[in-house]
Amino acid sequence: GDSVTQMEGPVTLSEEAFLTINCTYTATGYPSLFWYVQYPGEGLQLLLKATKADDKGSNKGFEATYRKETTSFHLEKGSVQVSDSAVYFCALRGVGTGGFKTIFGAGTRLFVKA
Amino acid sequence: GAGVSQSPSNKVTEKGKDVELRCDPISGHTALYWYRQSLGQGLEFLIYFQGNSAPDKSGLPSDRFSAERTGGSVSTLTIQRTQQEDSAVYLCASTPDRNSGNTIYFGEGSWLTVV
User: Fold this and answer.
1) Engineering a disulfide at A106: which of A28, A37, A98, B42 sits with its beta carbon 3.0 to 4.6 angstroms away?
2) Beta bridge mates, B78
3) What is the DSSP string of chain A?
4) Taking the CB of residue A77, how many other CB atoms lie within 10 A of it?
5) Measured between beta carbons, which residues in chain B are less than 8 angstroms from residue A32?
6) How far is A18 from chain B (nearest CA, A)?
7) B71 pLDDT tier (thresholds 50, 70, 90)
8) Terminal alpha carbon distance of chain B
9) Which of these, B74, B46, B60, B54, lies nearest to A104 by C-alpha position?
10) What span, in angstroms and rounded, lies between the C-alpha atoms of A20 and B3?
């Protein structure tokens, strides 16, 4: 079945450092790919998405490119801030039984130090 | 309402008791999901509804767990004879489900503690 694997955390960075959180997937067909974020004390919310190969999703300085050849959707940000401290979830959404099913990775916790 | 609404937001129950968790999805969203998030863990898929039917129940951890959805709207997740390992945040999400690119929208979750 479909699955998502993302790098284990926690990841600890200093402010203004470069961030990469790796995400790879296995899927039949052509899923859409997502990054969701969960800030402390808040619910899960969409960060960015890409719906087809070579698309780049971007939001709040974060970017991720849908790479079909490497089945990856790595999250990057050039300069992190303390306010980026959160848990980041990679997800794929593809055809499931009776409709579309969204599968999440295990999540990666990011701590950014001032 | 404007977003996915879940109740109760917090529930403390004694081991062996039954609990019901409620989810009110965004109006017009045909698909509804239940996930579980244990402390320090990722999101565990439980069940998926398309309208009132549940084509995918593969994530329910045991027969103590059940869920239903009525009127294509509100859903209830029931846990019978709760155990301490059931303690987690139970998240509900909904989406229009028209294509794979649809974002799913989460509620704030129901925090369940079994003592």
Assistant:
1) B42
2) B20, B66
3) --EEEE--S-EEEETT--EEE-EEEE-SS--EEEEEEE-TTS--EEEEEE-STT-EEEETTEEEE-BTTTTB--EEESS--GGG-EEEEEEEEEEETTEEEEEE---EEEEEE-
4) 20
5) 99-101
6) 24
7) confident
8) 33
9) B46
10) 31
**Cβ contact A98–B104 (<8 Å):** no
Tokens of B82: 């709760």
Candidates B46, B104, B108, B111, partner chain A, best to mutate (most A CBs within 10 A): B104
Query: Is residue A96 scored above 90 in pLDDT?
Result: no
pLDDT tens digits, one per residue of B75-112: 999 999 999 999 999 999 999 877 778 889 999 999 99
Q: Which amino acid is at A97?
A: T
Q: For residue B25, is the peptide bond before it cis, meaning its omega torsion is within 30 degrees of 0? A: no
Of residues A32, A43, A105, nearest to B100 (C-beta): A32
* Residues on chain A touching B102 (C-beta within 8 angstroms): 93, 100
Confidence category of residue A29, pLDDT binned at 50, 70, 90: confident
| Mean pLDDT, residues B35-55 | 86
Is omega for the bond preceding B8 within 30 degrees of 0, making it cis? yes
